[in-house]
Amino acid sequence: MEKLIITGGRPLYGTVAISGMKNAALPILFACALNRETCILHNVPAVKDIETTVAILTAMGISIRYLSPTTLEVNGANFRPCTSPNAFVRRIRASSYLMGAELGVAGKTRIAFPGGCDFDGGRPLDLHMKGFEAMGAEMSTYNDGYVGEAPDGLSGAKIYLNKASVGATVNLILAATLTPGHTVISNAAREPHIVSLARFLNECGANIVNAGTSEIQIEGVSALHGCTYRIPPDMIEAGTYMAAVAGTGGSVTLTGVYPEHLQATIDKLREMGVEVIDNNALETVTVSSDGHLSAIELETQFYPGFPTDMQPQFAALMAVAKGTSVIREAIINGRFAYLEQLKRTGVKTIGEAKDTAYIEGVAKLSAANMTATDLRGGAAMVMVALMANGTSEIRNVHLIDRGYDNIEGKLTALGADIVRCDEDADYPAPVSEKSVKAPSGLPMK
Ligand code: EPZ
Q1: Whole-angstrom distance, CA of residue 50 vs CA of residue 88
Q2: What is the distance between the alpha carbons of residues 409 and 298, in angstroms, rounded to a whole number?
Q3: For the chain, is the Cβ count within 10 Å smaller at the N or the C terminus?
Q4: Angle between the N-to-C axes of helices 311-318 and 375-387, in degrees from 0 to 180, rounded to the nearest 10
Q5: How far is the CA of 366 from the centre of ligand 1 (A)?
Q6: Which of 19, 66, 22 is nearest to 43 (CA)?
Q7: pTM for this prediction
Q8: CA nearest 35: which of 63, 76, 82?
């Protein structure tokens, strides 16, 4: 187990390249199980959840070769449904996508209960089950997981999702791609990762229309063919670096991003007093901040609303913003466990209900030892450590590694003082003073 040691108080300056979108790459890798031909995937992020997915699919007969650290050659010709390795399936949420892929290929599925970030409110899969059942599968749980079978094969169906669930939309697209007939998913998720999955599958010969709207139409095809596809940039990794600069002060340009995916985050940063310049043509966003922020209210929503996956990072900003901020979490129940850890640095909440937090800004945070509770909560801990006076330690880094590629390397290149070491190691040799200069006109915090 490893920890991060962060000495705060340094502004961030420079350029950071954003990696591929984890939550697009995951369903696309599982979608390769539907394809007997070879696909080349570029810009796959080098994060732990991808490593786990590669381990699951490889154990199930799918051939995966790394052509570079971010380019994978994937061939699903020898996919063996219902053979997933339980221990790996239990590590990630996206392993639930095996159900759609297995039902689509073989008309049967059997997987252990998927894992992933553990939120207090639980993460039900009832909408996935209802959708599979509408397509003709009989679904049930056994003591350790899910099992399902469509004795006469799946058939196209009209499915209404009670909530615009990302996971259920992905799973039903996977199940419907090779299923005879017409499937309609109403109240479908509209997130960019859904659009990306549909584009990838269409490049392989699938017939999926209206992804990105609330009603996705799928006409089943008999087989897919190979393709080459580039995973789009990760809007949450991008948002996290944008928020980090807003909090520490400084000026950073993010490259390889799609600003249109970031509008809700950009809007809220501007409301807090941060300068954000986005350039669609160049695929860049530049964030500049003097570290002085104003309180805001935000409510998480399905895309294109403010993403729940940016909620903890904004709590970190609210901690130092002038005034009282409010967060209403409307997507994932119980996504506030990380706040207890943030409070160790002096973050002040003045009231917390189940899905609402009120955060009163303080002038300065102090260093503390924290333990990551989940992926984005862990990112918020990195942020408060970057803003705090003194040296903080963050344990459970493996949770942060699930979704951030080389977080300490990218932050170090921007001027942060952050090192990774074994959890049991003594404090490492101090990182040498880096000379960080504010470019013209931008004050140091
Ligand atoms: C995806 O999770 C993401 N994970 C999450 O990212 C993200 O937080 C979430 O979407 C919301 O945007 C992946 O893409 C791998 P949901 P998922 O199905 O698919 C309810 C991160 O940090 N619900 O949209 O599990 C339930 O309340 C992670 O990268 C049901 O009631 O999200 C759930 O909390 C964490 N029944 C909410 O909808 C269901 O059958 C959102 O779920 C399904 C969902």
Answers
A1: 11
A2: 31
A3: N
A4: 20
A5: 33
A6: 19
A7: 0.94
A8: 76
Q: Which atom from ligand 1 is nearest to the alpha carbon of 92?
A: 15
Per-residue b/e over 107-123, b at no fewer than 16 CB within 10 Å?
A: bbbbbbbbbbbebeeeb
Residue 426 binned pLDDT confidence (cut-offs 50, 70, 90): low
Ligand 1 binding site (Cβ under 6 Å of any ligand atom): 23, 26, 93-94, 117, 123-128, 163, 165-168, 308-309, 331-333, 375-376, 403
Rg (CA), the chain: 22
- Residue with CA at minimum distance from ligand 1 atom 34: 332
Strand partners, 13: 251
Query: How far, CA to CA in Å, does 34 sit from each of 21, 73, 97, 106, 225?
Result: 21, 15, 12, 10, 10
- Among all residues, which ones are annotated catalytic? 117
d(CA 211, ligand 1 centre) in Å: 18
Question: Considering only CA atoms, which of 175, 163, 78, 71 is closest in space to residue 121?
Answer: 163
441 falls in which pLDDT band (50, 70, 90)?
very low
- pLDDT at position 354 over 90: no
